[in-house]
Every structure is written in C-alpha cells, then in structure tokens.
Amino acid sequence: MPKTSDQVARNRIGTDLGTTLFVEAGAGTGKTSALVNRIVELVASGVSMEHIAAITFTDRAATELRDRVRRRLEHLADEGTHTGVAAAALIELDGAALCTLHAFAQRILIEHPIEAGLPPAVEVMDEVSSLVDFDERWDSLVHTLLGDQDLAFTMLAGLELGISLDHIRRMVVRFDENWDQVEERLVEAPDPIP
C-alpha cells in the first residue's frame, strides 16, 4: 500500500485507542478500512464489542462496516494470537453499535426510555407506521371536534372566521412534530369574561 500524505492520521486512527476521534473524508479514501482497523485493534486490546460504537450515515455503510469487521475478526480468531477475544467479539458483533446515527439514537431511546423522558415501553415507528398512526389520531380528533356539543359553538365560530379543518390539521401536525415543546410553549387560554 503506497504511503499517503495523511498516513500519520491514518496510523493514529488504528493506534491512538485512548482518544475519541472524528474521522471525516471523501468517498473512497479509506475511512471504512481505517475504522475496521481501529475496531479490531480495540478488540485485540481487550475492549468488549459492547463498549464500541461506530456510527455511519447510511445503512449501506453500516452493513459494509459490520461485514468487514466480521471478516477481520474471523481472520484474527483463525490466526491464533487473539483467538479468545476475537471469538468473544464475533459472538457480541450482532448486538454491537455498528450502525447508522438513526439506529444508534433508536437504540438509546429503547434501552433508556425513562432517562430520555419517554414512557417505559417506547416503540420507535418507521415513517409509514408513524403516518398511519397520526392519521388514526387525526380521525379521532375530528370526530371529537365535530361530535362534541361543548365544542359546537367554537367550531362554528372558527368556520365563520375562515378556519378550516385543513388549517387545524396543519396546526396539529406542527404540535405532533414538536410534541416535546407543546406543554412549555402553549399558553393556557384565560377564562372567558362573564
């Protein structure tokens, strides 16, 4: 392999194991190879796969990273010098945090929902499931808005002022997107003057 102008930085990725590093480089420059080297060196030094996180931006990159780490660990296990740690790392690899940023965030939320301010049984939905769930909640809200006699005057007044269900839906979408800020930012309406 020819020496590159950034060889010192490349070497550091694989050897400076006590430092957290952020590696940024263009496509095809060897980021994945450098990261695989670092992960294998960490494992060889005795770090468990459950204590290693390698975050990528795409599913494709995460899959490639995981496959390349698996191949290198298999090779390391066959070599005989680090057979035990490599074999243990291979067992732990499927549960390791070698994944996309979104998958890593999801993992944290699922493993630590209380600390994140979420209900204990949080479920992260994909985009389609989330849209279906929102539509079901919207339909229920519309049914309530149009069927509740206590809200009839408010709904009629809103319609007279040009507020349509589409306007309300857009507002509800914004509330849904910013659910964590609604309580602190929404001002309670004052009691009507008699």
The value of Rg in angstroms is 26 Å
What structural category do the secondary elements indicate? mainly alpha
**Global morphology:** elongated
- Average pLDDT number: 85
Spatial arrangement of strands, main beta sheet: 1-2
The major beta sheet can be summarized as: 2 strands, parallel
Order of helices and strands: HHEHHEHHHHH
Number of helices: 9
- Strand proportion, as a percent range, falls in under 5%
Helical residue percent band: 55-70%
Stretches with pLDDT under 50, minimum 5 residues: none
For the secondary structure, the number of strands is: 2
N/C terminus separation:
84 Å
Descriptive account of the structure:
With 194 residues, the protein is mainly α. 61% of the residues lie in helices and 4% in strands. The protein has 9 helices and 2 strands; from the N terminus they run ααβααβααααα. The protein has helices at residues 7-15, 31-44, 59-79, 83-92, 101-111, 127-147, 149-160, 165-177, 179-185, and strands at residues 53-56, 97-100. Strands 1-2 form a two-stranded parallel sheet. The model has no long low-confidence stretch (mean pLDDT 85).
Notable characteristics:
194 residues; 9 helices; two-stranded parallel sheet; mainly alpha
